[in-house]
Specification:
single chain; OB fold (Dihydrolipoamide Acetyltransferase, E2P); 3 domains; 8-stranded mixed sheet; 5-stranded mixed β-barrel; 14 helices; elongated
Amino acid sequence: MLKNKIILILIIIIIFSFNLNAQDIVYQIPVEGNIDQAMFSFFQKSYYKAVENNADKIVIKIDTFGGYVDSAVKIKDIILNSQVETVTYVSNRAWSAGALVALAGQTLVMRTGSSIGAAETRPKEEKYISAFRKEFKATAEARNRNPDIAAAMVDSDLVIEGLSEKGKLLTLTAEESYANNIADNVVKSDQLLWPYLGLEESTVNKLKPTASENFASVVTNPYISTFLLIIGFSAIIFELLIPGFGIAGTIGFISLGLFFSGYIINGVASWGIIVLFLVGLLLILLEVFVVPGFGVTGIGGMVSIFVSLYYLFPTPQIAVNIIATTLLTTVVLTFIIGKYFGSSNMWSKISLRTSQTSDIGYTAYHGDEDLIGQKGTAVTPLRPAGIIDLDGKRIDVVSEGGFIDKGETVIIIDVKGSKVIVKPFIKRGNNQ
C-alpha cells in the first residue's frame, strides 16, 4: 500500500515538473518594408500557420513606412478576429498603414527611438480620410487605446493639445505613445522585448518570407510591374516583325511570365484572369495575321488584355496609371521600331518585299469592281498583304484570311476603295 502511494507521488511530481518546464509556443512574424498584397499574402499564411500549430502567443515585429490601405486593413482584421494573444512590436517605425497594424495588437510595445503615426491617405480626399480615420479610431477603441490620438494620426484637422497642431498629422515617439495610452510599454532594445513578455528569444519561432515570396514582393511593385509589361509587349511586337521565333519573342514571354507569376504567388491572379489575358493576345494575333484590317477582333483583344490587367492591381488609380503608361510607352517603342528597322527584313511578315514601281508593272486599282472574279498569281507571300500578278500587272492585295504562299492562284472576291481582297482559287472538277 505504501509502495503504491510512493509511486503515485512520484508520478504527480514528474507531471508537475513537466508542466513547469513546458514553454509557450510563440511565433514572430515580420511586417517590414512596403505593406502590399505580397506582404498580406505572407502575413496571412504565416499567422494561420501559427494558429494551426497551437501558438500561445504571436509577436508582430513592425518596421515600415506604410503601404496600401486595403492590405493593412486585412492584416488588422486577422489580428482583431484572432483568439490568440497577439503582441505588436514597433522596432523602428510604424508609419501610415503600419500604424493601423500596430494598434491592432492586444499588447503594443515600442523600442526606444521608434515612432508611430503619419497616416496620410493617397489620394488626400475627404472620403478616404474619413474612412481611414474611422478604421484607426475603431481599432484603438477595440484595444482600449486613446481613439482621438489614433484619429489624429490620419486627419490633420484634428488637434491634440500638447501633441499636434491643426494642419499637421500626428506622429508620436515611443515615450509619447506610452504616456498617452497608445503603447503599453517601451523597451530599450529588441533583446529586452522577450524578458518583458516572459519569454526566451531562443524559444521563439521566427518566420521569414520564402524566396518565392520575396520574388513576388519585387515583381508586384507597381514600377517593376510596369517595366515587365512594357518589355513584354514591346518584345512580342518586335518578334512579330521578325521571320521565325527568336530572342525578342523569348524575352517578351519571359517578361509576361515573370509578371503573372508574381501575382499568382500572391494569390491575386486567378486562372480566369490569366485565361482572359491569353484570349486577348490570341485575338490580336488573329487580327494581325488572319483578319484583314483592324476591327472587332483587334479591339476585343485589347479590351480583354486591359480588363485582365485592371483586376490585378490593388486600386483603380494604380491600375489606370500602369495600363496608361504601358500603352503609351509601347506605342512609342513600336513607332521607333518601325521607323528605324522598317527597311530591314523584320517587316517581311507584314510588308511587301518588292518595290511597287511602274517599271516592273505595278498598278494601283482604286474602286474598280470589274476586277471581282478575276484570277491572278501571288508573286509574294500574302501575310495577309502582298502582290499578285494579274495579266502582267502587279496589284497590291490583301488575303481574306490566313497566309497564301507565293505562286498560288488567287481570285479577287471584293474591292473596297483601294483595297483589293483575294482568296485562294480552288478548282472543282472542270468548273472554275
